Amino acid sequence: MNMHDEITRYLDFCQYRKELNSNTLKAYRVDLTQFQKFIGDDYMMRHKIEKFITDLHMHYKQKTVKRKIASVKAFYQYLEEEEILPGDNPFHKIKVKFKETFSLPRIIPKNNIECLLKHMYRQKAESKAPSLVRDLAVIEILFATGARIYELTNLTMQDIDLDNGSIRLFGKGSRERCVQIANKEVLSILREYHQKYLSAIEKSGYFFINNRGRRFTEQSVRNMLEKHAKENINVFFFNIFEYFISIEFII
Q1: Per-residue pLDDT reduced to its tens digit, 88-134
Q2: What is the pTM of this model?
Q3: Strand ranges, E, within 78-192
Q4: How far apart are CA 209 and CA 133, in angstroms?
Q5: Please, where are the H alpha helices in the chain?
Q6: Can 3-93 and 110-244 be said to share one CATH topology?
Q7: Given Cys at both, which of 80, 128, 135, 140 links 89, Cβ 3.0 to 4.6 Å?
Q8: Number of neighbouring beta carbons within 10 Å of residue 2
Q9: Which CATH architecture has domain 3-93?
């Protein structure tokens, strides 16, 4: 069995058959490539796999270790189901236990939110730059819906009903949820953004786009948030930025 070729086929299977999102596929590719480099041709050797797991524990936090092992286990399960493995799945005899750690979601103080938004609306009033309208629309949605950044950047026009104020978000595993926006100011900035960028939105297929008419990426959102937070001396930008790159937002 050629490990590299099988990983490529497995990732294609995950993308086109399981329809996993781009972030999950990227994580699988990183984890499986790391495993391939470590394991070499000894992919059926239980002791070599256990050595890999031990090495992970030595260099990564529990959450990362758990994800990487889950990626490899899922790959072996696929190989087993497709009858590609030359013998029994070695993971059937490998027990992995984790000590779960829990942390409370971080909450952004309301006054910091208000300071950031006031600063940006003040900038918008003084400038005609369309990107400010887009940036405000992005931040307003993040605060109003609790959306993750990757959920927001993958929104299409079909996911947003500006007349009824509803947004359809797709989370991990393509799980769908609908969020209603009742705040008139949020809907107003969304409609203003939509009008300014309408032709580019229709051309790209995504709701939030950059100045080149392409999808507004996760990293672009983070860079934008950091930029605006740093500009406002009344906002503790380092805290705001850390909050925004968290997995969850709770207002």
Answers
A1: 999 988 887 666 555 545 556 667 777 888 888 888 888 878 889 99
A2: 0.56
A3: 160-161, 166-170, 176-180
A4: 12
A5: 3-12, 22-39, 46-59, 62-81, 110-126, 130-145, 149-153, 184-204, 218-231, 237-244
A6: no
A7: 80
A8: 9
A9: Orthogonal Bundle (1.10)
